[in-house]
Write a structure and sequence with these properties.
Chain B: Residues 1-34 are annotated as: Disordered. The complex is a heterodimer of chains A (334) and B (455). Chain A has 334 residues and is an alpha+beta fold. Chain A has 6 helices and 11 strands. Helix content of chain A is 29%, strand content 24%. The chains are: A alpha+beta (334), B alpha+beta (455). Chains A and B meet through strand 1, helix 1, strand 9, strand 10 and helix 4 of A and strand 1, strand 10, strand 11, helix 6 and strand 14 of B.
């Protein structure tokens, strides 16, 4: 009887968005009288920080600092339609809609600035700090604060824009299954290292090294929290969780967190996250949807590591000590 | 976290002001100081609480329902049964023309899973609603139930859901969603080795911190405001409008920060019945799942069975892959027919294989309906695929990581569902993993690229 060590690898890809009804999301953007910007959506922030990302996307597109953008969302009386926050679609779909809306608003903003500065709008650029400058002659400039005041009280212009993401609905071909099930794909490769106690069947995940390719990390700190959380969820799926421990038997389902097994802080592995960025052609600033895929590769990586450690295959999730011990017993010479 | 900017540098401009910056989240101070408002933080004067009478049986005919004792219970204001729901038989994807309608808001004549909602009790307090629910008498005739997907698909199995007529979803392609690419049998015939293996999972709970729920307030203008933690505002509003036969302009949905979703809050379950309760009583109604309901009543991730048969050459090339996937939908469709279809579009994984055959089934059993969850239609498939890859590598005596390089897809490669690969990055992820995990592979693999050959 001994503690045995093993490691396993898994590599995966993951689609962004869903192939249902064109997967639409809309956004509206408008400026306040003093040059702050409102993004209006009906998308839902699930705690992943969608509002913050939409603010950064709008700010980048308009050319203002992020703290000058406010996001109003999840209200059907004010926000235009969004299919919902799922299928790794929030950042990608709503982000594209916000960019389109913000571009339209930016164009009006530049036109008003052009009238104030008596130049062509096409000769103007933003400095990202709240000012509009004449290209090549930055001393000739106007603040976005003043442009918004002018638009509201003098020029009679609404600095606003509408945006929408929609793709053609793809109906799978009946016989061949030809279809376009999603847009861009994110990627991952994970190496997990485990220790398995061949006396108790208990698995300890020592390290999980994840490489994720996500198009672009729009906010690296926020993507990190999502990727780390996902990696933990993957371990949890591999080793602990189910509502029906004796599936397909319906008995003994957990009804609270005492009975439903999940890892505690002490059960979580040392987690490494490495991010690659290959911008997608259709994503907001190249972003893909990392929300779901980041929880997938740990499961087979842990399963393969368990085999590497003790030489038994557990092909049924979750990989419980009971299943490992039964497999070891079946494998042992009588 | 480390960003490896040396990969794909030629495809990316890093000259942005706000994007790529680690700005602090504007909502995090509220989260960590307890100031963030969630839907359940609202408390209206005169608010009623809704509790469900649920089926104790996996499959049963309802002979009769007697609510007379429950009605007399102190604090009870109203009790709803199937006849009170204007459009009681529904399915959520009907909004995008995916039917048939196969699920009841409140059971009508039959229950098809243990925990199914039968009677809704509205009372002044949660306790009164709970106590009155226990006094509702439902006379059941227990029917044979089926829990195992293989059993469910056999001729003569008890029919779980009459709206389908058989224990699987019927696609326009027949009993399963199909993908056919190349000639899989010819591929097997020419392979050096064949490996067929079966993988299985069990249902998994989303386990959000905040359970599913909503609070509905009747407004003075004949409208209803529904404060909810749904993941999809208009999807829920529009389905509620159909179920209640109430014009959408009478409904105002307000969300906000949700305490975790993971796909568990995309079914339309609590809102329609709570709005109906508010309409019939003229009072605000709160319907919030207990933790037990969240664990055993709300949809889990489906259990899946995945059978993979591969033909592989001694040099590492996979020449044929046949996958048969079974998704255990439980008693009702919800999003599962789409989940099984998404699986069909995902197999054979991020590898270029010339001969592929995929069948994915959405199977009905007498258990809690499953639905979307993080990685919907893909997570369990990836477990099966990647364990299979490990077995194949060992079968032919190759390093498991090198084996994946041999088969990895690249830009321009045709996928089984007939879309050319774009924006591939699997090879680079594996190269970086090789370095990070000190898992060396041959130099020729480290020199590979996802870019199209000759590009």
């Amino acid at each position: 009887m001994a503690i045995r060590r093993g490691r396993g690898v898994a590599a995966i890809n993951y689609p962004t968005g869903m192939n249902l009804g064109g997967d639409p999301t809309q956004a509206l953007v408008h400026s306040t009288p003093t040059g702050n910007f409102m993004v209006t959506l009906s998308s839902v922030d699930l705690g992943q920080g969608m509002k913050q990302i939409m603010a950064q996307i709008c700010a980048e597109t308009i050319g203002v600092p992020t703290d000058r953008v406010v996001v109003d969302t999840a209200d059907t009386d004010t926000g235009p339609h969004c299919m919902g926050t799922f299928a790794s679609r929030g950042t990608h779909r709503a982000g594209n809609a916000v960019i389109q809306a913000a571009k339209e608003a930016r164009q009006v903003m530049l036109e008003v600035a052009a009238e104030e500065l008596e130049v062509n709008a096409s000769d103007l650029e933003t400095d990202g700090q709240g000012n509009i400058l004449v290209k090549g002659a930055p001393q000739k400039s106007i603040s976005i604060f003043d442009v918004a005041l002018s638009a509201h009280f003098k020029r009679g212009r609404s600095i606003s824009g509408r945006g929408m993401f929609l793709i053609p609905r793809s109906y799978p071909e009946k016989e061949t299954g030809a279809m376009k099930p999603s847009t861009c794909y994110a990627h991952a490769c994970t190496v997990a290292e485990v220790e398995v106690d061949d006396e108790t069947g208990e698995v300890t995940v020592l390290t999980v090294k994840n490489v994720f390719e996500i198009g672009r990390a729009l906010n690296p700190k926020m993507v990190e929290q999502q990727l780390v959380g996902g990696s933990w969820m993957g371990i949890s799926h591999a080793l602990y969780e189910t509502t029906e421990p004796y599936y397909p038997n319906r008995d003994h389902g957990g009804t609270d967190f005492n009975q439903y097994l999940m890892p505690g802080p002490g059960d979580l592995a040392e987690t490494q996250i490495i991010v690659l960025e290959r911008p997608s052609a259709d994503g907001p600033f190249g972003a893909k949807g990392p929300g779901e895929m980041c929880a997938n590769p740990q499961i087979p990586a842990v399963a393969n590591a368990v085999f590497d450690a003790v030489g038994v295959r557990i092909d049924t999730l979750p990989i419980t000590p009971e299943r490992i011990l039964r497999a070891l017993k079946a494998q042992a010479p009588n | 976290m480390e960003l490896r900017k040396n990969y794909f540098a030629d495809q990316r401009k890093d000259d942005l002001h706000e994007i790529g910056q680690p700005r602090p989240r504007s909502d995090s101070p509220g989260h960590v100081t307890g100031k963030t408002a969630y839907f359940a933080d609202r408390n209206f004067p005169g608010m009623l609480h809704l509790k469900m009478v649920r089926s104790p049986h996996h499959h049963a005919r309802i002979r009769s329902i007697d609510t007379s004792e429950a009605e007399k219970h102190p604090g009870v204001v109203n009790i709803l049964t199937a006849k009170d729901v204007p459009h009681n038989v529904y399915t959520i994807l009907i909004l995008i023309q995916i039917g048939p309608e196969d699920e009841t808001v409140l059971a009508d004549g039959k229950v098809r899973w243990k925990g199914e909602a039968v009677v809704a009790v509205l009372a002044e307090t949660e306790r009164a609603a709970q106590e009155a629910a226990a006094k509702v008498k439902v006379d059941y005739e227990v029917l044979p139930a089926v829990f195992d997907m293989e059993e469910a698909l056999k001729p003569g199995a008890p029919i779980v859901n009459e709206y389908h007529g058989q224990n699987h979803y019927l696609y326009d392609s027949g009993e399963c969603r199909k993908v056919r690419f190349g000639d899989v049998e010819a591929g097997f015939a020419g392979a050096d080795h064949i490996l067929e293996q079966t993988y299985q999972s069990s249902p998994i709970e989303h386990a959000p911190t905040e359970t599913t729920g909503c609070i509905v307030a009747p407004e003075g203008n004949d409208r209803f405001t529904c404060y909810t933690n749904t993941q999809a505002m208009f999807f829920t509003l529009d389905n509620a409008s159909i179920i209640l036969q109430m014009p959408g302009n009478k409904l105002h949905f307000v969300g906000g920060t949700v305490g975790g979703g993971f796909g568990g809050k995309v079914d339309v379950i609590v809102e329609p019945i709570a709005i109906l309760g508010a309409k019939l009583t003229g009072r605000p109604v709160s319907f919030i799942y207990s933790r037990e309901e969240e664990m055993q009543i709300s949809s889990p991730r489906a259990a899946e069975k995945v059978v993979i048969k591969d033909g592989v050459m001694k040099d590492g090339r996979i020449v044929a892959r046949k996958v048969t996937g079974y998704t255990d939908a439980g008693a009702y469709s919800r999003h599962s027919p789409y989940g099984a279809q998404k699986g069909a579009g995902h197999y054979p994984g991020p590898y270029t294989i010339p001969n592929v055959w995929i069948d994915t089934y959405c199977v009905y059993t007498n258990r809690t309906p499953s639905s979307a969850m993080r990685g919907f239609g893909v997570t369990i498939g990836d477990f099966a695929l990647e364990v299979q890859m490990d077995k194949l590598a060992r079968l032919i005596g190759m390093d498991p990581l090198e084996f994946r390089f041999v088969n990895a897809y690249r830009d321009g490669d045709m996928k089984a569902h007939r879309q050319p690969t774009e924006g591939a990055a699997l090879i680079e992820c594996m190269q970086e993993a090789s370095r990070a995990a000190n898992w060396p592979v041959a130099e020729k693999y480290m020199a590979m690229s996802s870019y199209a050959k000759g590009a």
